[in-house]
Amino acid sequence: MKRFNSSDSLAAFISITSSKEDRTQNTNQGYSRDFQAMLDSLEEEDYIEEANLGSEKKRRLTLHQVKALEKNFEVDNKLVPERKLKLAEELCLQPRQVAIWFQNRRARWKTKQLERDYGTLKANYEALNLDYSNLEQKNEALAQKVKELKAKLREEIVDSSHSVKEECHVSESDNHDFSENKNSSAVTKDHSNVSSSNELMNCFNLTDSRAILGNRYQVYQPHLMKLEEQSLFSAEESCNFFSVDQAPTLHCYFPEQ
DNA sequence: TTGTGTTTTATTGCCTCC
DNA sequence: GGAGGCAATAAAACACAA
């Protein structure tokens, strides 16, 4: 527990009188010598009276004292006992007053530092928030674009499916002999009937959407199923219709192989 | 002049370190 | 256990609008 001792009162009195000196220096310039003396005596009476009454009224430090303390605080915000005593002596203050001033000054500095940190964090948060909003907008735009492209792709698939059906119907009537006259050995794996296969492939000369479609086989599989369902061709015959990567042949395409 | 909000000085109680 | 730091708080001093 820290308590004042008897020397503190004396130091307080010294502090008070020194404050008076500074104050008169600061405020009473420009008066006549007599008037100045009168003011000095009046103020001295006041201070002595206060001191005699044991008044413990707070007295603000003079500008000179505060400036000196601030300067020392900038050098080091902690006080070692030697520096405290030296400062107290230089500024006509109690060592305790110097210690208290530094303590309060540290508290003020800490508060300011917290405010600065808060400001920095707030600025960082706002910048980050802005970045996030921008990214979110870009993300939404990209999602919209993907949606549009998917819709477009669907349309193209539907269109091509219709055209395949129509073309196949036409082919069925035109090449009726092909499907009827052939027997199981008509289409052989030696690919002898190249010309007719070319014709057939022409029927399926689909719009080359290779640029759009990544995996043609998968994409066109439903069409293949429809063709099979309609019994337009045998399973073997329907093979390889969409293998546009190769020269049009009647090679069967077996994904397992 | 006065009420009110802010700043500064000082106290108190607790904690840590040597 | 004493010295010193810190947080919380009191109280005086100060600033300022009405």
TrEMBL record:
Residues 54-113 bind DNA. CDD domains: homeodomain. The keyword Signal does not apply. SMART domains: HOX (SM00389). InterPro entries: HD, HDZip_class_I_plant, Homeobox_CS, Homeodomain-like_sf, Leu_zip_homeo. Residues 164-196 are annotated as: Disordered. GO terms for biological process: positive regulation of DNA-templated transcription. GO terms for molecular function: DNA-binding transcription factor activity, RNA polymerase II-specific; transcription cis-regulatory region binding. Residues 181-196 have a biased composition (Polar residues). The keyword Transcription regulation applies. Its main location: nucleus. Keywords: Coiled coil, DNA-binding, Homeobox, Nucleus, Transcription, Transcription regulation. It is found in: Nucleus. Residues 52-112 form the Homeobox domain. Belongs to the HD-ZIP homeobox family. Class I subfamily. This is Homeobox-leucine zipper protein.
